[in-house]
Amino acid sequence: MSSPLALAAVTAVLRDLLNNGLIDHNITGALGNNVTVTAVPPDTIAIDGTNARTQLNLFLYQVTPNAGWRNAGLPSRDERGTRLTNPPLALDLHYLLTAYGAAELHSEILLGYAMHLLHETPVLDRQAIRTALGGGTVDNSILPPAFQALSAADLADQVEQIKITPETLSTEEMSKLWSAIQGHYRPTAAYHLSVVLIESRRATRNALPVLTRGERDLATGRERGVVAVGGLIPPYPMLTAIALPHKQIAARQGDVVTLQGHNLEGGNVRVRFEHPRLVNPIEMNLGLNANGENIAVTLPNDAAAQLSWPPGVWNVTVILQRPGETFDRSSNSLPLLLAPRLDIPGSNAVRDAGSGAVTISLAFTPQVRPGQTVSLNAGGNEAPGDITVQTGTLDFIFPALGAGQQWLRLRIDGADSVLVNRELAPPQFDITQRMNIPA
Length: 439
Hints:
This protein is of the alpha+beta class. It has helices at 6-24, 27-31, 106-120, 126-134, 145-149, 171-181, 303-308; strands spanning 35-38, 54-65, 89-100, 163-167, 188-198, 238-243, 256-262, 266-274, 282-289, 294-298, 312-321, 329-330, 334-338, 341-351, 358-368, 374-378, 381-384, 391-398, 404-412, 415-416, 420-421, 428-429, 434-437.
């Protein structure tokens, strides 16, 4: 695959191809003028007076995705965001080949020879690319710095060769192009070059090759093969839901959560908790689980856990060894909201005598981390929290907040503190989740 230098490399190779072809046909002798081949915007070329030159110009006017390669290597990441492949950036290049003449008929002669050269070279030869980008017999050190860098484009080694195809543009399309370029029209031919493949060099993760399709019979050496299951329940561990106590919609530290699913029985059972703010996941070892339908997990609520378990959205996965197997199996992941727990007695509210604004210094567990989104809703009024360091206490300023008892609800990364008691019918507010606001 090529590097991001490939676009400039293709233009350099095309310019070299045209320049060599004009030299081989002695166009300079035929025209009586020096002929130059350039790759600059057409509006920068002098066409009048003593500055007018006989030249060919190659202009890359459009780059489009290649339809045949644009989906290659996808998906490039798994469900955890780990890079699996480096999908190529597949591009088609569209060029305008324009001939400029300092004398009568020079532009027509130049364009004819140039189109004939491209007609006789429908594919950019790999060796020609290496020669052009390597400077041929010329020492690279005397070349411009931008050209020296093109030798690292790896254009000659990409899997697809670059094909040159004439492209037909209508009078209207050509007129719009030259109007956008703001240049004076000269005899022009359009060409389509396909395909340039640009690929990243980042590390990827690939699965190991399959050695057997199931276990081998020790006596016969034959593979077990594919096992057919007569039902909709898969034969591997699978989570279907996470049941929370008291009909809550978010868990709190100290709660017993029940992971429900299929084929959850086994040994060496670990429950893995992953959080976007943590580099490494947290695993809880449960040992043996005899129930294939659910696993009960108690979320820790000690001082260490309040420091290491940030509130917000967690992904939960079960890892275990099925009966009769010697390797680990992983279930799918399910999201779990870990809500903050408010410490109302450890909090306080102060009203500013001048402005009337109320500042609530709220204590809660577990602690939040920099980068998390935090807001406090008090009596229907919401105020954001500013986090600079990991902390379990934040100040929230309310410009206008009524005096008396106000219900509090703390939201951290979408996880709300538990304000409603859903076990009652109808549901009611939890009276422990309110604070007295001074007048």
